[in-house]
Design goal:
single chain, alpha/beta, D-Maltodextrin-Binding Protein, domain 2, 2 domains, globular, SBP, ABC transporter substrate-binding protein, Bact_solute-bd_prot1
């Protein structure tokens, strides 16, 4: 269970006036921080290293205590802390709850009084947006990372070379992906396959289809399967069904590693890294995990192959409705603000996110500094993000009340609807008799109904929200969506 904020009690000991007669010792402010991010995991993690440095600098004045725990444990513990009104000084918003809900419940305090304008200005454009991480003009959280690519192609150069393919020319079309995978599988004699994926965590499999269709349908990485241009789910579109049928064809070719349907991500890393599979389609975090789990792997990174080889574009938003927040009940807000500005959300901390290879930072100046890149692949990693990602519309900006709708759904993915898309995809790959078009039509119908039901439920309470708030017909996925685009919708 998470212990709450320090409530100004410091280390719990009363000052000893005999040490300095006639004076009272200043209490040490103890700041508690709680979350489940990997940058807290282990004494040598970036978060713990910079926290140790901060504690040494302010020894006797401020002491920061970090409580890391796995996701499931954290969510249970933080909900208990909320119920008992005993939140840590700095806490990560629980899953399924966004900044606006937390602020409206009175659990978080704005940061503005305790951090400087220079600190805010270091972040990339779009990092702070009203209705997202700013409520009524006040700042409540900050971006933890920069551009966050949800789908890239990882290709094993050794496997391609051994199959007689050019290891510097990964597939750019669906036909090339299927053909190369078939050649690799045939020459592998049952030991090497074209494609591997982590089917043991099926929720994330929609990101693979999202990647394969990004040049044909409007795509937002945080909302796989949802079309922001028309406010509907696109699982039953020809593009998504076509991508599913591509995988079905690769399965019939024998090109998908059979273990893919049940393996976990760490296993996929190892199989790919140990030259047992040529291609892996996964988010940006797979790069550093492959480096961790298979350090000798010889691999490259590229944009995911598209049906006709066109340039794909992926929508993103830097400002996030989730993140670390300052507890409204903390009695050491000034010290907590100092820790946020000088350590936790400082340039020094964000340098570590680049040097670890885990992601880009939310500070453009750091992302462009090649001296921070941990290995050669990171340059390509950076370029793919720059070339293929564009700022997308955000329904929280268009109407902050949409947060109540998402609260009803849990997530735009609606994982409460079973089976999930990922589970359906696995079923379609395992059972050749199933009809992808029919299954996807039924699934899209359920998802669209789920969204409309949530909108109707929120609207019935008197809140002004509609399907139009999730619809941006003027979005061009090849360009950044700007304030002028939001303004144009209101005319």
């Amino acid at each position: 269970m998470i212990s709450g904020c320090s409530n100004g009690s410091g280390n719990g000991q009363k000052p000893d006036p005999t040490q300095n007669p006639g004076t009272e010792q200043k209490k040490e402010a103890v700041i508690t921080v709680a979350g489940f991010d990997d940058f807290w995991k282990g004494e040598d993690s970036p978060g713990m290293v910079i926290t140790k440095q901060f504690n040494e600098k302010y020894k006797g004045e401020i002491k920061v205590e970090v409580r890391y725990m796995p996701t499931s444990e954290y969510n249970t513990a933080i909900q208990a802390s909320i119920a008992s009104n005993d939140l840590p000084d700095i806490f990560l918003s629980p899953q399924g709850m966004d900044a606006r809900q937390i602020v409206e419940n009175g659990w978080a305090a704005p940061l503005d009084e305790f951090v400087s304008a220079d600190w805010k200005n270091q972040f990339m454009q779009g990092s702070f947006q009203e209705g997202v991480n700013m409520i009524d003009g006040k700042t409540y959280t900050w971006p933890l990372r920069g551009l966050n690519h949800r789908s890239m192609l990882y290709y094993n150069k050794k496997v391609m070379r051994d199959a007689g393919l050019d290891p510097e020319k990964p597939p750019v079309t669906w036909d090339e992906l299927r053909a190369m995978s078939k050649v690799i599988t045939e020459k592998g004699n049952g030991k090497t396959f074209g494609l591997v994926f982590a089917g043991g965590e099926p929720v994330a499999l929609d990101q693979m289809i999202l990647g394969l269709t990004a040049s044909k349908v409007p795509t937002q990485g945080d909302m796989p399967g949802f079309n922001l241009q028309n406010g509907t789910y696109l699982f039953d579109t020809p593009e998504w069904i076509g991508a599913i049928e591509l995988l079905q064809g690769m399965k019939q070719d024998g090109s998908i590693m059979p273990a893919s349907y049940s393996m976990k991500p760490a296993e996929a890393n190892v199989y790919f890294g140990e030259n047992l599979a040529a291609f892996l389609i996964d988010p940006r975090h797979r790069m550093w995990q492959i480096k961790r789990d298979a350090p000798d792997a010889e691999f490259g990174i590229a944009a995911v192959p598209q049906q006709d080889g066109e340039q794909p574009y992926y929508g993103y938003t830097v400002a996030n409705t989730a993140g670390y927040m300052l507890s409204a009940t903390s009695e050491n807000k000034e010290a907590a603000g100092k820790y946020i500005e000088e350590a936790f959300a400082s340039k020094e901390f964000f340098k570590s996110t680049i040097q670890s290879g885990a992601s880009l930072s939310p500070i453009d100046e750091l992302n462009a500094d090649e001296s921070l890149y941990p290995y050669p692949e990171y340059k390509v990693f950076f370029n793919i993000h720059q070339d293929t990602m564009r700022e997308s519309p955000n329904y929280a900006i268009a109407n902050p009340e949409t947060a109540l709708v998402i609260g009803e759904l849990g997530h735009i993915r609606q994982t409460k609807i079973k089976p999930t898309f990922g589970e359906l995809l696995l079923n379609l790959l395992v059972d050749d008799k199933l009809d992808a078009a029919a299954l996807m039509k039924d699934y899209a119908s359920k998802m669209n109904k789920g969204l409309q039901d949530a909108i109707d439920k929120v609207s019935a309470t008197g809140v002004k929200v509609s399907r139009d708030d999730f619809t941006f017909p003027n979005w061009d996925p090849t360009k950044d969506y700007t304030q002028s685009d939001y303004d144009a919708l209101k005319k």
